[in-house]
Design a protein that fits this description.
This protein is mainly β. The protein is built from two helices and 14 strands; from the N terminus they run E-E-E-E-E-E-E-E-E-E-E-H-E-H-E-E. A hairpin with a 5-residue loop joins strand 5 and strand 6. The two termini are 20 Å apart.
Length: 225
């Protein structure tokens, strides 16, 4: 589209014989700085323009039934509505990804504008770009939430591909370090089937008579000046 490269993912699931909860997602790891830097904290700009809320969890990341505002929780560190560097408020993210963890592993709710109110309509939920390479990524989806994970659990044990190290002339990261990548998971509200007051069963429980569950997302690449 518009001369820009785009990846599309479409996951389709069916309830074959009985009504059943279905919520699928993908788990793609991204690094827009091409491992030219050891982490993404200081060069990756992230914006979640439709996500002023997120689902609260306990110390082992099990949803606890709360919905929190990004601007008032953890000193506002999860507030990416206007966009900021991933590491801008990293020191205030202690516990956001679980006990003893500093970073993001969080389900951000997508609050759709009226023009995109239809539950199966596609809407842009994320923009990010790297100041190191100038590569940008825009994500559009039909899902009601997006999980962001800042690779807090990486320990520098997985090697970067030799071809990438060669492209970087031996400089930059040779292993995937903590905060060395970011994961984007378009999905429904986690634990929605156990929280009836959230009214998410229409999106998460399917029967043989219903339409299939479809998780559709596009990842469109570009460049910034």
């Amino acid at each position: 589209p518009h001369g820009r490269p785009q990846l599309t993912t479409k996951l389709v699931s069916l309830a074959m014989t009985h009504s059943t909860p279905i919520m699928v997602s993908n788990h793609i790891y991204w690094n827009l700085n091409g491992f030219k830097r050891s982490t993404i904290l200081d060069d990756l700009f992230l914006q979640l323009p439709l996500s002023p809320r997120f689902i609260g969890t306990d110390g082992i990341l099990v949803p606890n039934g709360t919905i929190l505002n990004v601007d008032t929780s953890y000193n506002g560190s999860p507030d990416f509505t206007s966009g900021k560097l991933v590491g801008a408020d990293i020191n205030d993210m202690a516990g956001l990804c679980g006990t003893g963890c500093v970073g993001v592993d969080t389900c951000f709710i997508v609050d759709r504008p009226p023009a995109y109110a239809a539950r199966d309509s596609m809407v842009q939920v994320l923009h990010m770009n790297s100041s190191t390479t100038g590569i940008s990524l825009d994500v559009t989806t039909n899902q009601q939430a997006v999980q962001i994970y800042t690779c807090n659990g990486q320990k520098g044990q997985i090697p970067v591909k030799p071809s990438q190290v060669h492209r970087n002339h031996g400089q930059g990261a040779h292993f995937i370090n903590k905060y060395g990548c970011i994961v984007i998971e378009t999905e429904g509200w986690i634990d929605g089937i156990n929280q009836p007051e959230w009214e998410q069963s229409e999106d998460q429980i399917y029967s043989p008579a219903s339409a299939p569950a479809v998780n559709w997302a596009t990842y469109q690449f570009g460049t910034i000046q």
